[in-house]
Amino acid sequence: MSQQLAYVIITPYSLHKSRTGGILARLISRTGLELVAARMFAPGKELVARYSEAIISANDPQDRRIQELIRDYILRNFGPDAATGRSRRVMMLLFRGEDAVRKVRSVVGNISAERSGGETIRDTYGDLIFDAHGNVSYFEPAVLAAPSADEVEVKLKLWARYSDQDGGVVENAVAYPPDVAPQRTLVLIKPDNFRFPTGRPGNVIDFFSRTGLYIVGIKVHRMSVGEAMDFYGPVREMLRTKLTDVIGSRVKAILEKELGVKVPPAEERQLGEILGPVYGDNQFENIVRFMSGRAPSECDAVLRSQPGTEKCIALIYEGPDAIRKIRDVLGPTDPAKAPPGSIRREFGQTIMVNAAHASDSPASAERELAIVKVGENLFRRVVEEYYGSVD
């Protein structure tokens, strides 16, 4: 069977309740599909109207009443708040693979008042409650997904057309007290979480939900060698200069063991000064290769600018004291030193292969966000590569 695209829209309520990680973990691990794009939206009135009109479909296996509930839900909950004008956050996830539409729908599930446990996303996170007279008293679909490949195409093209105007890094979506100044920080879910289809990326995001912060931007990113070099540039100098004592001591131990030569302290220092920068450059090459799939020494100028072969998820979190809160949940760089319950203790392996990155200061966040460009519209690019122009 040929490759298909399929989408899942995470509703404003599911985002507000920090269910993003659990939803993503199920979609990746249970479908085996590739997550190829993700984008935040603050849908405007026009997109909401057009999308709600497209919901009623004879191809949808759910009955007309459920379709009407979804249509009305979109009209009430996707657009700007009528009272405050505040935007509402919606997350679009785009998957690719064989039989993708059916696989996504099977994990999403249909909407029913009779729940069958936690088998599907809607079993766990959705609700359909009737009153004593058979009227719907509460409805929350948790996520939305199209029932057929034809409808995926229609709806993806629609969202793609509005993806510049209504999508990107969402502004004015969260209300804060007058005395609270929110921060934004960058998080990267690193390539070690994507070696094979697993719930790890979602599980890591679920850990970050403890912070009470809000996701306002998301992007599936393949870091180029050039981006990785810029991103980790400050680390390179540290590796070259601050490890001279460590390297000198290691080289001394090797020489004394292998050659039986006693290395005096002065020569030990010289060995560190000579070999420390060499070791640092080698470690830097390894970091760049880990993040992008290629080392700088393997690339010419053209290849350095191309998207890498490794994938990560880039997220922008917003809220008071965001940088510190994210770093506290992440844990220190070395997983062996990270406290129980931290992301790096649970998911990290080494100082380099340590599950996630987070900005460590406002200046770092500003610099790193400028490199990764979370607002870049790769979502539309993927849709147009598959279907052609969406205009």
Task: Please characterize this protein's 3D structure.
The chain has 391 residues and is an alpha+beta fold. Among the domains are: 1-168 and 375-391, Alpha-Beta Plaits, CATH 3.30.70; 228-304, no CATH class. Helices cover 45% and strands 16% of the residues. It has 17 helices and ten strands. The chain has helices at 12-16, 20-31, 45-53, 64-77, 100-108, 121-125, 149-161, 200-208, 225-231, 233-241, 244-259, 265-292, 301-304, 322-330, 343-347, 362-372, 378-387, and strands at 3-10, 34-41, 90-98, 127-130, 136-140, 143-144, 183-189, 214-221, 312-319, 356-358. The strands form three sheets. A four-stranded antiparallel beta sheet has the order 2-3-1-6, sandwiched between helices. A four-stranded antiparallel beta sheet has the order 8-9-7-10, sandwiched between helices. The protein has a two-stranded antiparallel sheet with strand order 4-5. The longest helix has 28 residues, at 265-292. It is elongated and about 90 Å long. The model has no long low-confidence stretch (mean pLDDT 93).
